[in-house]
Amino acid sequence: METQVLIIGGGVTGTGLARDLALRGVQCILAEKGDINDGASGANHGLLHSGARYVSSDPGSAEECRKEGKLLKRLAPHCIEDTGGLFVAVEGDDERYVTDFPHLCSRCNIPVQALDIKEAREIEPALSDKLISAYMVEDASIDPSWDAPCTAIRKSQDSRKATNTSGPPAC
Predict the structure, then answer these.
(1) I want to staple 42 with a disulfide (CB 3.0 to 4.6 A). Which of 17, 130, 136, 145 is the partner?
(2) Rounded to an integer, what distance in angstroms lies between the CA atom of residue 100 and that of residue 103?
């Protein structure tokens, strides 16, 4: 068996790499000992961060999240749901952080929208009665266990070399 690239591991990284290589016309073989996306990739929480959670502690990671999210939304829009995300503050939280949050997001090119308390509660009725501030960011939800196996196998130049194509959905 010959190939240009051998990919070991059929998680989201391995299947994403196989998809990318196949789209570029590079012959690859994906080897997976279990089911595709059976490990950590299939068990992740599915949150596609806007990067806003890192704007204060790690601006570099915040910008990287934003860029990766934008790329994933372009490459696999069919498996991403723009859910939005709320950053909220309650009585007792650091009010300097609350005030600085929009500026920190802006420095990392992360869109943020201030919400009044009523708007925030319309989006999430279970918010604390001690809510003092809320911001909407562009978080999303992604389901790699549905997209990765199908796109990697469907786009593969030699799909019969895929170790296992079981799992949701039938491609």
Answers:
(1) 145
(2) 5
Q: Does the pLDDT at position 166 exceed 50?
A: no
Q: What is the pTM of this model?
A: 0.68
Cβ atoms of residues 27 and 157 within 8 Å: yes
Beta strands in the chain (DSSP E): 5-8, 28-31, 47-48, 80-81, 85-90, 112-115, 131-137, 140-142
Contact 3, 27 (CB under 8 A): yes
Chain segment 61-105, per-residue pLDDT in tens: 999 999 988 988 887 788 889 999 999 999 999 999 999 999 999
Distance, CA of 168 to CA of 151 (rounded, Å): 12
Regarding beta strands 131-137 and 85-90, do their DSSP bridges make them parallel or antiparallel, or are they unpaired? antiparallel
Where in the chain are the domains? Answer: 1-45+144-171, 47-142
CA 18, 20, 22, 25 dihedral sign is negative
Find, among 34, 48, 47, 41, the residue nearest to 12 by Cα.
41
Q: Count each helix (H run) and each strand (E run) in the chain, helices first.
A: 5, 8
